[in-house]
Amino acid sequence: MSDSARLAEVNSVSETTSVIPAPHLCEELMSFMVDGEFYAVDVKKIQEIRVWEEVTPIPNSENYVMGVLNLRGDIVPVIDLKGYFGLGTIVCESTTVMIILTISDGDSDRVAGIVTEQVSEVIAVNGSVLNEVPTFGNRVNTESVIGLLNHNESQMVMVLDCDRLVAAAIPHKTSE
Amino acid sequence: MKLDMSQFLGVFYEESFEGLDAMESGLLELELGVPDDESVGQIFRAAHSIKGGSGVFGLTQVVDFTHLLETLLDELRDGKRQVTNELRDVCLSSVDALRAMLSAIQDEQSVDDAAIAAQMMALEGLLGAQSSQSEAVETAVAEPAAESNQESSHVGWQVVFSPHHNIFATGNDPYRIIRELYSLGEAQVMCDVSLLPDLDELDPESAYLSWKIEILGAIEREAVEEVFLWVEDLCDIAIMPMGQLEKTVVQQVDVSQEAAPEEERRVESPRRQTKERRTTAKPKGDGGTIRVGIDKVDEMINMVGELVITQSMLSTLGENFDLSKMEALQQGLAQLQRNARELQAGVMQMRMVPISFVFSRFTRLVHDVSQQLGKKIELVVVGESTELDKTVVEKLGDPLVHLIRNSLDHGLEPPEERLAANKSETGKVHLSAYHQGGSVVIEIADDGRGLNTEKIRVKAIEKGLISENEVLADKQIFELIFLPGFSTADSLGDLSGRGVGMDVVRKNILSLGGSIDVSSTVGKGSQFVIRLPLTLAILDGQSVSVGGNRYIIPLSVIVESIEIDLEQMRCVAGKGKVFCLRGEYLSVVNFGEVMRTDSERTRELAGNLMVIVECEGKKYGLVVDDLLSQQQVVIKSLEANYRKVNGISGATILGDGSVALIVDVPGLIALFSQDIRDEELAPCQIVQG
Prior knowledge:
The structure holds two protein chains of two kinds.
Chain A: H1 3-13, E1 19-21, E2 28-34, E3 37-42, E4 46-51, E5 65-71, E6 74-80, H2 81-84, E7 97-105, E8 108-116, E9 118-124, E10 129-131, E11 145-151, E12 155-160, H3 162-169
Parallel strand pairs in A: 3-12, 6-8
Antiparallel strand pairs in A: 1-10, 2-3, 2-9, 4-7, 5-6, 7-8, 10-11, 11-12
Chain B: H1 2-29, H2 37-56, H3 60-77, H4 85-106, H5 113-127, H6 131-142, H7 147-151, E1 156-163, H8 174-182, E2 186-192, E3 210-216, H9 221-227, E4 235-241, H10 246-254, H11 256-280, H12 294-319, H13 326-350, E5 352-354, H14 356-373, E6 377-382, E7 387-389, H15 390-411, H16 415-420, E8 427-436, E9 439-446, H17 453-462, H18 474-480, H19 502-511, E10 515-521, E11 525-533, E12 538-546, E13 549-554, E14 558-563, E15 569-572, E16 576-581, E17 584-590, H20 591-595, E18 609-615, E19 618-624, E20 626-634, E21 648-653, E22 659-663, H21 665-678
Parallel strand pairs in B: 6-8, 13-22, 17-19
Antiparallel strand pairs in B: 1-3, 1-4, 2-3, 5-7, 8-9, 9-11, 10-11, 12-13, 12-20, 14-18, 15-16, 16-17, 18-19, 21-22
Helix pairs in contact in B: 1-2, 1-4, 1-14, 2-3, 3-4, 3-5, 4-5, 5-6, 10-11, 12-13, 14-15, 15-19, 17-18
């Protein structure tokens, strides 16, 4: 069951529609920064965090797919999140990191990396509540955002559904 | 015990299917008339071990069926019958039925009872059993519900009971079981002592005897089975209605000397299986298994041994290293490299299987088709032992079947036509396989009427594949048959000509990294040549650099590499660039442009290199920045974590740990052709000098 499906279940029983409890199966979130904003993913989905290294670009692929990486013999695609969200192209520096995610795609698992400007911290979710993502019509792609988390009083963290994110960014099947 | 058995079930199926294949090829080789003992014996043994195995796993239906077949083969072996076409066909279709039955059981689907019953009838018809007998069985199998009642009208049952050695250890006593049989009806017991060892070797707690028991009277099958219920897993048991076997039984009693070795084999076969099981039983997985010769494994173990020695040598060297030991280090590294190479080759060798796995089925195919079409056909197979990667062999089956059917159906003429054309009545199809360089070549040649260029042309115009006034060379016309939706068959036959034809064949071959060519002479026959890489996992590649990235181009498609000479550059219609290579004009494919790797960078052709590649019979000049080394690369899938990328067939990891992409040349050419069509190409400027 994907995070969002779980959430939908929770959502249906919650009394208010604007505030929903955090998915109880995801206890800890790893937050990171993309283009000055904070995002977070379920720590359980994270296989490892690596320092940025050069990847091999793939011709004829999406602009936000930076290339493929040799992860101990596995060929792993690396996604530029900034590019995927349409915020430009990431500039790789010393703080740039790759978060390697293991996502479930149908029956099998896939490995993919996302590039972020920096990772910040692990947030314990217990008790916190997720705010529903406001709709912006077609202007903003919020498909892979599960909800918004209010962290340290004022900081907004967008919680991402890794499965959906990767499936939407790099569909497995040839789109011909 | 039950659990143990299921573990071996996979091996049993594997062996049974192998046995069936052996039976099939044996049957096809049988000459009409009096058969030679060797080949009949081989078929008989295969049938026998299937029967034995099925008995062990309680597949009574298979046992009953195989038994009939075995009885027939036994008569053949004893020279009581001669090989006739009828007998051969019945045996062949029995093999088919048996195969269908086993695969149905394997897939846990229901067995087609009616088909089996029909087949059993055919067998019995041949066996010439009493008419009442076959009638009884006919009704029995057609109406399974009534089975027991009908069968009980038999004169009695024949039971072959061979307990396993450890039967006493479980507290069971064969004697008590036999005594119980007496209570069912009049029984005759024959004891087989052929396995009894000498007294000094005899283990008093082991069972060595087996029995043949005939029980007379109208007894239900269940009643007999019930007696053996407790020892089902501890013995080999076969229960057969007696009437059918009367003939053979008498025979066996008469010449008990002769029956003994057979009995021995029967008991021996499960033991032999156990031995094999030990070596072949592997963890279950959907990937299937490969049988590897013990010599190959031994060789591997030797290599690993050497690798370990080299490794320990190097680590001793590394413990207190100084520059004086440099030479020793280099030697050690060279040795390590050699070990790794050998090991790699050894591992690849394990995946290699002889191509006879595919070829063997064609004897049968040709046999069936020649009867169906009323043509006389001879299949000549050469180079069956040529080894190929298992995956390639598996995927090769369907395309080859298609090509051979085409040859049989369209290529070879009926006898009258052949005679009229002054050819021998029997058409010949040559199927050969051999190694050539780093690839395996498979040729399918027939001496039929050859491809009719005029007919293909008309058809192609009809289908709108070419225009009416297009002038094509013969070679180009032959290429047309590989286009989708092309079929020259006048009538849609059962065999081929359904319109899904050669394009699929070509696609399959291409997906294996191979190529297919056709040549033909009217009246003399046609020839298809398939070239395949030895293996799918490793590739000989030329690494090139384009826009700062490294790519691997398979060496098999590269004709040559040259430096671009602008004098030889031409523009066609002011647009497409061509290069004149010794009088031959090639399309120039700009790698960077097609792959859109460096759109900003304007490419100076001068001083750059061009790799001439061949794709589907045409040559192209691929412009690259630099040629790097030639190397063997291990192919990694890009699709596992990402997806199929046009123009790229996979990825590999280079010595420095970085990833290089492997170019799919046909895909790249397709992209290139698409570009030409899609985009209005800017007029090219060739700056001379």
